[in-house]
Specification:
Layout (H helix, E strand, L loop, with lengths): L30 H14 L5 E5 L6 E5 L9 H6 L9 H5 L8 H13 L8 H5 L14 H11 L3 H14 L6 H17 L10 H8 L1 H11 L19 H21 L2
Antiparallel strand pairs: 1-2
Helix pairs in contact: 4-6, 6-7, 7-8, 8-10, 9-10
């Protein structure tokens, strides 16, 4: 389980007969003996060990890194799912709100996301390793919702409907009322677009009464591919659009300066 005690437990924990006899945790041994035991385990596994001692913040800490081993997550999970796994896509994805690509390029990006095996439920900010803040659409954006936007920009309305409905089913619980209303309106317009015999203008006034003029205008712009990336602000190379990320970088820089000052003594 995880640090917040969420997770799964095995049915075997409820068995009357235990697989192993109960043994109290052993806290015997000095810190030096525990360290020697740990190093012996690494040596037996033929692992390289990197150790760093930190005292620059006035509190001692020891960091031990062993490539290929993890005491929390399975090593393969860290390899496949981490905050750098989509870093090569950062510039591409952040440029989408102001982009004017050929339609097929947007659809090709959907294929690339599939080929690279990114989970549709993954938050894009985590995929890119960004602290976006909670005041914009990047905060709740998941890969599945991004695919809906890309399909709209690429003019594939059938695929856009599939991913819009996915978004409403799996991500709408974290949307603001305005964003949730936009997606309801978008779904309605996408459904209407599948019926060639319908005249969209015949339903315009009714839709405005149902969803509001602003939502209808935004959804119509997305449907036409004119503005498919609803609620995603443009982001420059310096990431100034994300104050939360800037604060994180400043905190990191502060720590590095403290570390450098300590080691220069």
């Amino acid at each position: 389980h995880f640090i917040d005690s969420s997770g799964l437990i095995s049915w075997d924990l409820f068995k009357q007969d235990a697989d192993y006899p109960f043994t109290d945790w052993s806290f015997s041994g000095t810190t030096e003996e525990e360290f020697a035991t740990l190093m012996a385990i690494f040596a037996a596994e033929d692992k390289e060990v990197y150790i760093a001692d930190y005292e620059h913040l006035g509190v001692y800490a020891c960091r031990i890194i062993v490539p290929g081993m993890s005491d929390i997550y399975p090593a393969e999970d860290l390899w496949l799912a981490n905050n750098n796994m989509g870093s090569h896509l950062r510039e591409t994805l952040l440029s989408l709100p102001g982009s004017a690509w050929n339609k097929e390029d947007y659809l090709n990006l959907i294929e690339q996301l599939d080929e690279e095996g990114f989970d549709d439920f993954t938050r894009v900010r985590e995929l890119l390793g960004l602290a976006t803040g909670a005041d914009n659409g990047w905060y709740t954006l998941r890969v599945g919702e991004l695919k809906a936007m890309l399909a709209l920009a690429g003019g594939d309305l059938e695929q856009a409907l599939i991913w819009t409905e996915w978004t409403m089913e799996f991500n709408s619980s974290v949307f603001s009322p305005t964003r949730a209303n936009y997606y309801r309106c978008l779904q309605t317009l996408l459904l209407l677009s599948q019926e060639d015999a319908r005249q969209p203008l015949q339903y315009l006034n009714a839709f405005i009464k149902m969803y509001g003029a602003e939502a209808v205008e935004a959804a119509s712009a997305a449907l036409s591919g004119e503005a498919a990336f609803y609620g995603l602000p443009a982001v420059d190379h310096d990431l100034q659009a994300f104050p939360a990320h800037q604060s994180l970088l400043k905190a990191y820089d502060k720590l590095q300066r403290a570390k450098a000052a300590y080691w220069s003594k």
